[in-house]
Design brief:
Strand order of the largest sheet: 5-6-4-3-7-1-8-15-2-16
Shape: globular
Helix content: 25-40%
CATH architecture of the largest domain: 3-Layer(aba) Sandwich
Largest sheet: 10 strands, mixed
Number of helices: 16
Number of domains: 2
Number of strands: 16
Structural class: alpha/beta
Distance between the termini: 50 Å
CATH superfamily of the largest domain: Alkaline Phosphatase, subunit A
Length: 469
């Protein structure tokens, strides 16, 4: 009897230990690099290896050193090439939908439940953060349900109705209802729902329900590109830090963080700006990783993307890369366009070639760090004559989110070609996107899978229940 009793006790101890090992993570971080493919990640590591010394090979990012990796296919419910609404819905709800739709099934009527909503139903604190606007497609996929991703006002109202504890980003897209000026501003809707709106990280204080956005003097409703940011700019890392402070509690939390401007820069085919955005995204992930190091048995971090943007290629047939050239770029396509606009204003549209040439030298390294061919120099001068000196109606260079000065777009194209980076398209592609994971349950995110599998596995590992099928 004693021997049997000893064996029984031993068996109970083994079961207890195994149950402890299998305990679900309390803290879940879900990072989405919008538009970020394998080449965006790898290209950033080549870019990092070139500064301060020009080293051969790569310098690893924080998240590329995570122990578990995988690949995800991203097709939507009606196309092999997804948009961010359908891609975000797949990553949030585990279900394919048609392009342009947020949080609804392919019939654009059946409401889907996101992993964030599941976490809230379990009594966890929930946060959604982004470097773009709070009611843009990817963050909206976690709390909203709309036939069109462009229904920004209605999506903003659903943000306030979600009851999530934290939102952080640039600002609202379309704070007012376009067809009804009597409708309250989204700021008022959010405040009526109990949210404290905080403008700027320096003004942030912990509260039960917080919306952290940038200062009113910001030039646009998204965070600035990292390459253009100043010391006063709100950053994705700061937003992530604030989110953890609001969400952290003994029961646990779920936090989604989107690096949204990787996609914006990729639509504009601006390689140096893309790489700075991936570094900025990695800085936010480092904040979560520091939290993980303090709670290694209780934390899961998963990183992926909703789709690839631009078809980024590393190399242009010369069996080489020239990424030191990309380090000569000091501003984004937007930043240089704004510089040209200021020059137009300050000179009353009498901008000289010498002024433009000096701006190109200072911001792209042309004629200084980088030797231009006669063909490239002529192309820049001809564009100056056509779009600046002649002072006629300018045909702006259009990407999905911006209208740029033509000479800015041309300078970027020249520098990218010299850097030996290629961009076959300015839109999304059907390429695989990467998955990286660390922490409790991270082994579930290895190998090839569909993007809809990722939230399903997070829900299973974290014990949120069954996500929509």
């Amino acid at each position: 009897m004693n021997r049997k009793r000893i064996l029984s006790v031993a068996l109970l101890l083994v079961c207890f230990c195994l149950s402890g090992i299998a305990k679900a993570p309390k803290y879940v971080f879900y990072f989405i690099g919008d538009g970020m493919s394998l080449n965006h990640v790898l290209g950033t590591q080549y870019f990092l290896a070139k500064q301060p010394a020009d080293r051969l090979g790569i310098a690893p990012l924080c998240f590329t050193q995570f122990p578990y990796t995988g690949l995800a296919a991203t097709f939507s419910g009606n196309s092999d090439v997804t948009d961010s609404a359908a891609g975000g819905t797949a990553l949030a709800c585990g279900v394919k939908t048609v392009n342009g739709t947020v949080g609804l099934a392919t019939n654009q009527a059946t409401r889907l439940t996101s992993i964030a909503e599941l976490a809230k139903q379990q009594g966890l604190r929930v946060g959604v953060a982004t470097s773009v606007t709070l009611n843009h497609a990817t963050p909206a996929s976690f709390y909203a349900h709309q036939r069109s991703r462009n229904d920004y006002y209605e999506i903003g109202v659903q943000l306030a109705q979600s009851g999530f504890n934290f939102f952080g980003g640039g600002d609202f897209e379309e704070n007012v209802k376009a067809d009804d000026r009597t409708a309250p501003q989204l700021y008022d809707v959010a405040e009526d729902a109990g949210y404290k709106i905080v403008r700027g990280y320096d003004k942030f204080k912990k509260s039960d329900k917080v919306i952290l956005i940038q200062d009113k003097k910001a030039l646009e409703s998204t965070l600035p590109y990292a390459i253009d940011a100043t010391d006063e700019s709100l950053t994705l890392a700061q937003i992530t830090t604030a989110a953890i402070e609001v969400l952290d509690n003994r029961k646990g939390f779920f936090l989604m963080v989107e690096g949204g401007k990787i996609d914006y820069a990729s639509h504009a085919n601006d390689a140096a700006t893309v790489f700075h955005e991936v570094i900025d995204f990695d800085n936010a992930i480092r904040v979560a990783y520091d939290f993980y190091l303090q709670h290694p048995q209780e934390t899961l971090i998963v990183i992926t993307a909703d789709h690839e943007t631009g078809g980024l290629t590393l190399g242009n047939g010369q069996y080489a890369l020239n990424f030191p050239a990309l380090h000569a770029q000091k501003v984004s396509h937007v930043g240089f366009s704004r510089l040209i606009n200021r020059m137009r204003h300050d000179t009353h549209d009498k901008v000289s070639w010498e002024q433009v040439r000096e701006a190109l030298r200072a911001n792209f390294g042309f004629w200084d760090q980088i030797t231009l061919s006669e063909k490239d120099e002529k192309a820049l001068y001809d564009e100056y004559r056509r779009s600046i000196a002649d002072n006629k109606k300018v045909s702006m260079a259009k990407s999905l989110y911006y209208m740029d000065e033509p000479i800015s777009a041309l300078a970027i194209r020249i520098l990218d070609r010299i850097g030996m980076v290629g961009w076959p398209v300015g839109s999304h592609t059907a390429a695989y996107v990467p998955i990286f994971a660390v922490g409790n349950g991270a082994e579930r995110f290895c190998g090839q899978m569909d993007n809809t599998d990722i939230p399903k596995r997070i829900a299973e590992v974290a014990g949120y229940g069954t996500i929509d099928k």
